[in-house]
Amino acid sequence: MKKLARILTSLNPTSITIYMTALVMVLFLVGVPFLDLVELKTYDLRFRSRGTTPPSPAVVLAVIDEKSIKAEGRWPWPRAKIARLIDILSRDGAKVIAFDIIFAEPDKNPNLELINRLDREIGASHLDDEGLKTFLRKIQLEGDNDKKLAESIMRSRAKVVLGYFFHMSEADLGFSITEKEMNERLRKIASSKYPITIFEQERMQIDPFIHAYAPQPNIEILSQTAHSTGFFNMLPDQDGVVRWIPLAIKCGHDIFAPLSIESTWNYLGRPQLILKVAAYGVEGIMMGKEFIPTDENGQMLINYLGPEKTFPHYPLTDILHEKVPKGTFNNKIVLVGSTAVGIYDMRNTPFSSVHPGLEVHATAIDNILQKTFLKKPKWTSIYGALCILAFAILVGAMVPRLSAVKGVFLVSALFGLQIYLAQWLFTHAALWINIVYPLLALLLLYISLTIYRYFTEERERKKIKRAFSHYVSKSVVNEMLKDPSRLKLGGDKKDLSVLFSDIRGFTTISESLSPEELVGLLNEYLTVMTDIVFKYEGTLDKYMGDAIMAIYGAPLELPDHPQRACNSALEMIESLGKLNEKWIKEQKTPLDIGIGINTGVMMVGNMGSQQRFDYTVMGDAVNLGSRLEGANKSYQTNIIISESTYQRVKDDFFCMELDSVRVKGKKVPVKIYQLLGKDNIPGSRKEAVNFFHKGLEFYKKQEWDSAVESFQEVLAKDPELLAAKLYIQRCFDLKIDPPPPDWDGVFSMKTK
User: Fold this and answer.
1) CA 183 to chain centre
2) Which terminus of the chain has fewer CB atoms gathered within 10 Å of its CB, N or C?
3) Taking a C-beta distance cutoff of 8 angstroms, is the pair 335, 263 a contact?
4) At what angle do helices 404-429 and 33-50 cross, to 10 degrees?
5) Burial of 744 (C-beta count, 10 Å sphere; 0-12/13-18/19+)
6) Is there a contact between 617 and 498 (Cβ–Cβ < 8 Å)?
7) Taking residues 173-184, what's their average pLDDT?
8) Is the distance from CB of 653 to CB of 573 less than 8 angstroms?
9) Cβ count within 10 A of residue 279
């Protein structure tokens, strides 16, 4: 408990993970309007990513579009035209005709008003002409468009569903209505009441339904004759986009069904229709054997199929003039409404900001008929919480242990996985799971842990920079910064290359120079040599007076470290030549250096005490490199490499076998080689090297005279291969004082 309390009361990756997770979980449970809005926008993007899907052939739209307005005149039209429309659609075999139009006021017919006025005047004048009265009544009947529409509805073989809407509040209506008027309005929409409502609990503690203030019904004559009615209200989300459609609205003591439910119900032959209410709220609607899921308030998620005109559109003027092929509306639900600019019910949907409300109703009907319901069950909230928790544990555990790049990769991968999974479930399983809050947990945790790492590790980074910036190139420093744990006492065994460089006769040179001149000369020399080490990403182990020790392959992993060491050595000799030319012109003393390179397994790491330590290498392989550097003086060479180095670089560099030597303290001899260059070796030198190798063979066979001839040929072809002089002298000495019978031709190095 004490350990947990210490973790929670201090700032560390674990406490940051716990607190950030708790914060996001609280936000998720409470709900933040801005984040909820972002989630809604991601929901819309899922539709667009999914693309369009084909609608059911059962639903078509008869539309009052610009073409119809131009042909038939300004809306509203005389209801005789609507009556004719019903007659035509009924004859063509339509099964349901649903109106996304309300007939809230009697039709205004100026001619009928004139006849009615004339009838009143005749009655007031006590004219008893029965013929005239009969004629007037006949004209009245012929001019009554509302009655014509009612008669057309009554004789229609298609079920006619009239739409109406609810005023959701008294302020929406603009005035208060009496109880009597309210009852009258409710009576006119009684056909859209749910016939059966089943409550799981008789006495519910909550009223889950959406409440309306008062309906705006159709006129009496049409309400009485219509086969059914249904409201066409839509309730947009906070951003104005219609994503849900209410399937149940309560007004007074009754619960009413929408145009989409009534149209589908009539189309399916009016199966048993039940509104089911669970303890937590509305569960859904049973239509026969089919179940229509809703949220707890009785709203259904609309599974949009695509942008506007996804469903077939037929202009009303073409239908009225019978220009539509016969059978077009056979066995169809025909939704009648407006799409003309200026008079239609414009809605904002995930696919479009200009979407006819008529098509929204068509989409809801299509969802019910095809059973393509989008679902957001209660368990998706549990999934969201578990997702937040899983991401928090994974990010909190991994990010502090990963480099910045790997941390970004991990978070990006989880980010992409969450989006992909949400889209896949949406497209293939019709499930809406939350994207935003799990992604928020990812981002907050990563940012928090990154900031923590920055502030707490900056001191460590500065320590590393101070320790290494003078000894390695910037790329090596950056590599060390990726893993500050390397800056600790201890070491590892690694395959590395070590380079030793030393100025020949430095003591004699230093005696001839003033301290200032010596320091200036040495600084200029060491700067050039160090830059070369850094150029090939070597690590400057240390300066030992005029000597340089460099490592290749640590701390930065370099698979080609032997090649880099050899390149460094060749460039050092080349650069020294240029320095000497410059110094001679300045009347300064030229320098000569010897370089030794060895490759092998060494112990590398920080050696020293807790208070002070150096990054260095140790081991026999290091000692051999140092001795090879010293051997240059004996062989009068500039660069000597070991056999292990030669085997790794022989395909890239031109080398000459110098000797087989036995290092002091070791029994097994090793071959050593003079590094001469890369691919720019003159032909004469190559010939000289061949003679040198022949001389070595004669030397090892104790054929001294033949060996001397070969080595003299070497000097004739390339006087700079001064190692030949050493062998000529050895041959003379051994000829005078022959070696013992067990002599193997190996030279034993007496000095370190």
Assistant:
1) 57
2) N
3) yes
4) 70
5) exposed
6) yes
7) 92
8) no
9) 12
DSSP assignment of 308-331? TT-S-EEEHHHHHTT-SPTTTTTT
Tell me which residue has tokens 């490199």.
Answer: 625
DSSP string computed for 117-156: HHHHHHHHTT---HHHHHHHHHHHHHH-HHHHHHHHHHH-
Q: Find out whether 697 and 705 touch, Cβ atoms under 8 Å.
A: no
Taking CA atoms, 108 is separated from 76, 102, 146, 224, 660, in Å, by: 10, 15, 9, 20, 121
Q: Predicted confidence band at 156 (pLDDT cuts at 50, 70, 90)?
A: very high
Partner residues linked to 199 by β-bridges: 277
DSSP string, 73-133: -SSSPPHHHHHHHHHHHHHTT-SEEEESS---S----HHHHHHHHHHHHHHHTT---HHHH
Tens digit of pLDDT for each residue in 367-403? Answer: 999 999 999 888 888 888 999 999 888 988 888 888 8
489 — pLDDT class (breaks 50, 70, 90)? very low
**Average pLDDT for 303-311:** 93
What is the C-alpha separation between 626 and 637, in angstroms, rounded?
A: 15
Question: Cβ–Cβ contacts within 10 Å for residue 197, how many?
Answer: 15
* Alpha carbons 424 and 276: distance in angstroms, whole number: 30
- Decide if 667 contacts 674 (C-beta within 8 A): no
Query: Residue-wise over 490-516: b if at least 16 C-beta within 10 A, else e?
Result: ebeebbbbbbbbbbeebeebbeeeeee
Q: What does the alpha-carbon distance between residue 347 and residue 339 come to, in Å, rounded to a whole number?
A: 11
Q: Residue 119: pLDDT band by 50, 70, 90 thresholds?
A: low
Across all residues in the chain, what is the average pLDDT? 87
Per-residue burial over 635-672, b = 16 or more CB atoms within 10 Å of its CB, e = otherwise: bbbbbbbbbbbbebbeeebbbbebbbbebeeeeebbbb
Q: Where are the alpha helices (DSSP H) in 236-320?
A: 259-267, 316-320
Structure-model confidence comparison of residues 404 and 178, the more confident one: 178
Given the structure tokens 């013929």, which residue do they identify? 131
